[in-house]
Amino acid sequence: MNSDLKIRLDRTSKMSLTEQIRTSISRAIESGTLAPGTRLPSWLDLSAQLGVSRGTVQAAYDRLSDAQMIETFRAGGTRVAPRPRAATPRHEAPEPGMFMKAYDEMHGGPNIFQLGIPAYEGLPEKLFARARSSNLLKAGGLSSLLHPDPRGEFELRREVAGYLSIARNLHCYPEQVFITAGYSSGLGLALRVLGLDGKQAWVEDPGFLVTRKALELTRLNIVPVPVDAEGIDVEYGMDHAADAALAVVTPGQQAPLGVTLSLRRRLQLLEWATARSAWIIEDDYLGELQLDGRPAPALASLDEGNRVIHIGSFSKTISPALRLGFVVAPEELIDEFSVVAATLAPAPAPVIQLATAHFIRDGHYIRRVRRLRRLYTAQRDALCAQLRMRDAEWINAGLTVLFRLPDGAPDAQIAREARAMGMAPSPLSKWFATPSRALSGLLLGVSTAPVPRLETSCRLLFELVDRFC
Questions:
Q1: pTM, two decimal places
Q2: pLDDT category, 102, cuts 50, 70, 90?
Q3: Strands annotated E in 31-120
């Protein structure tokens, strides 16, 4: 036993003899040298082998037993206890899956041309900090001992309802507004309420990868519907999946092509939903940040059949770090949304909600949106001027400029190379659900393209594109 276990006692060590014995046996068990069920020497035998007292060995065995590494049986003696099967050692961190790679590429940075991030210039940090601190007493007093409203703080729900009536022509009651942790949280809340497992759902093609993945995870069958100059092709959807139970659309500014859903298509979509008792989820992607002319009203503003669930967020207008958004539910679904919010998807912390409510109430939010529109218009125009100088093929796509590449050009590879150079264009091909429809291009975010950096960045980008095309 002594040679097998390699128990070597050092009587000059500060570690007690009991602990040395315990450590040696523990290591032998953990390494597999002593397999489960192996019988150990008795206290008397091991103490004789090691030249120590029986009490020293007994104390070591007691500690091993307390750690559930050995078991003592009257007739069967002392044996190694069963152990969980050791997992295969992992020498390297596992590679993220394809979806998370694409997600990380989309949400990394910030880098120039990156999508989905507001301009750093003019972030209302001081105003927001002041608003937050003014709410600490309210949120940290007696009310903090109570559970916050899972639907969201009524003060913010009231401000959101008021803002939507002005900015999006969407008239709703505060009771219809549910505060969420951003767009993804709002989408998850809506999908849980609707419970459409196994049904078909229309999605825009090209369209937002996160939306498609969310529908797949909730066991919906995706029906990619092409997008043209009028937005989602409703007739195509009806021809190929008229019995779909859901359509998810970005009618204000289509993601990623930037087109606004035409009035004709809006009415078609609403008529289809009403006739089929289907639902429409309106992702109000950049709806209020229209750079040319007045933003189109929300699709839900035309919804007399109560089939539209409107989702918005403050990620593009204040900051994605807020993780704050909202859902406007049809009146008939208020109870269902309330139950799901209370049990599965409660609103974020009250302090940040109240700060946002004050930010809107005091007029700072609407002024910030106006400033962003002016800033983004200037940055877009400067970017387009750089592209024009190089005779590039491009189109304005909302808060994005779509730089078209030749058919078959490796836009994903170009985008990866660009990231190593501090730029983050999004490859257009990755937004398509149907590979045969995919087009090559680079989506250049306007909000993260400050004018002083444009000339150098565009030169580097064109040099990179020339290497591949």
A1: 0.77
A2: low
A3: 39-40, 70-73, 77-80
